[in-house]
């Protein structure tokens, strides 16, 4: 009966538009989609594409709506520096409770993320960690009473981006593994940031380190080795490919002018909220866009990030699988298509890898999954995800799931 109710909510009635009262529910003290005289990539507020034309000063010095402010009391912040930055500048709600359309718009306006990649990331975030009816999401911890249609959460607990092994995963750049930190997988770890800075200094320059492909690829492999050695529950499944995608942001999205700029220390420190200390270490502060920062001129598309994933992984390949004990890693079995001997198969192309991401995205939404509240995941949820992703992956030549 509960599955039937959810199916009606998601498919029969749609989402927020079916519940007029939702539009009047308070969202934030600084709603991100308030009118602005600075359209940036001119992306609309309904999740549709913007112009794709970048090279804008973001935020404009006269754009008071998107000036930096520290998080207000009670605001949600989480494991993703980029999402924290968007919230601290009001491109998504400053309380950290955002929604699908807002995420898609903000990624385009601030970073000039391509619409297809913006939709892919927003779909996974909302479907895995948010509410499929309201399409709301906490960018930090559980805020079910603020994201769900009903404050009790008819789909069970909605843990936000902090939820382990959904969007957040082990061996991230600057957050602890869940099982080595008493469940704190979201707080910025300044020691790990120092480790990353030391690594990229060794591959570029001690005085002017670059957080580029060479350095970040090496650091990703170092974090894998660290997790194998220290985390008895370390899991590095195929979805970990998304970690490589996120790591490309340091040199594709964060530099002023994107790939035409320099992924230097001051820029990356600002986006991560890292403050150099006199002892050579770091302290933490809220993440922010650097002063005088311009976004990339051309969109960073889904195909672009897949090419970046492949390039970074192949530079320092590691095994996919998981630990059975600290230092004892079991690699995944060959699947006859994408993986061989625990690694991406030799000769795999970006065209193949993009379709693997489509398959990975659907893995969590098969109809026999169950939610944290015990409710059997209905086919309606998979239909929602397919409705978002099929228009993106179909033109890329992927074999689509068209019915459940």
Automatic annotation (TrEMBL):
Residues 1-18 form the signal peptide. Keywords: Heme, Iron, Metal-binding, Oxidoreductase, Peroxidase, Signal. Its cofactor is heme b. GO terms for molecular function: metal ion binding; peroxidase activity. Residues 64-307 form the Heme haloperoxidase family profile domain. SUPFAM superfamilies: Cloroperoxidase. Residues 33-55 are annotated as: Disordered. Residues 33-45 have a biased composition (Low complexity). InterPro entries: Chloroperoxidase, Chloroperoxidase-like_sf. It comes from the Eukaryota. Belongs to the chloroperoxidase family. This is Cloroperoxidase. It comes from Sistotremastrum niveocremeum HHB9708.
């Amino acid at each position: 009966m509960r599955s039937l109710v959810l199916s009606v909510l998601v498919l029969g009635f749609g989402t927020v538009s079916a519940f007029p009262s939702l539009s009047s529910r308070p969202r934030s003290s600084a709603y991100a989609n308030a009118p602005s005289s600075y359209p940036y990539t001119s992306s609309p507020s309904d999740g549709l594409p913007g112009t794709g034309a970048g090279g804008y000063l973001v935020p404009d010095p006269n754009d008071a709506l998107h000036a930096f402010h520290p998080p207000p009391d009670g605001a949600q912040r989480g494991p993703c520096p980029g999402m924290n930055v968007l919230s601290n500048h009001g491109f998504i709600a400053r309380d950290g409770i955002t929604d699908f359309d807002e995420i898609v718009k903000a990624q385009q306006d601030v970073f000039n993320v391509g619409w297809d990649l913006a939709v892919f990331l927003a779909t996974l975030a909302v479907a895995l960690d948010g509410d499929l009816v309201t399409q709301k999401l906490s960018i930090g911890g559980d805020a079910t009473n603020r994201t769900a249609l009903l404050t009790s959460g008819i789909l069970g607990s909605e843990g936000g981006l902090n939820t382990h092994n959904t969007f957040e995963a082990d061996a991230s750049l600057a957050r602890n593994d869940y099982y080595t930190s008493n469940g704190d997988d979201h707080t910025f770890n300044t020691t790990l940031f120092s480790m990353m800075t030391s690594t990229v200094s060794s591959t570029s320059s001690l005085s002017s380190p670059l957080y580029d492909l060479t350095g970040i690829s090496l650091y990703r492999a170092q974090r894998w080795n660290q997790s194998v050695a220290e985390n008895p529950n370390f899991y590095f499944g195929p979805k970990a490919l998304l970690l490589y995608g996120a790591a490309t942001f340091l040199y594709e999205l964060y530099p002023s002018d994107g790939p035409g700029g320099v992924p230097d220390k001051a820029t990356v420190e600002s986006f991560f909220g890292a403050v150099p200390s006199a002892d050579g270490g770091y302290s933490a502060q809220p993440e922010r866009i650097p002063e005088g920062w311009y976004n990339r001129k051309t969109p960073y598309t889904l195909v672009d990030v897949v090419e970046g994933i492949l390039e970074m992984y192949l530079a320092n390949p590691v095994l996919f699988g998981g630990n059975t004990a600290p230092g004892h890693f079991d690699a995944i079995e060959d699947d006859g298509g994408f993986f061989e001997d625990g690694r991406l198969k030799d000769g795999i192309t970006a065209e193949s890898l993009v379709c693997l991401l489509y398959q990975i995205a659907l893995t969590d939404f098969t109809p026999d999954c169950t939610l944290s509240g015990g409710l059997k995941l209905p086919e309606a949820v998979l239909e929602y995800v397919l409705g978002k992703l099929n228009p993106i992956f179909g033109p890329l030549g992927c074999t689509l799931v068209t019915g459940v």
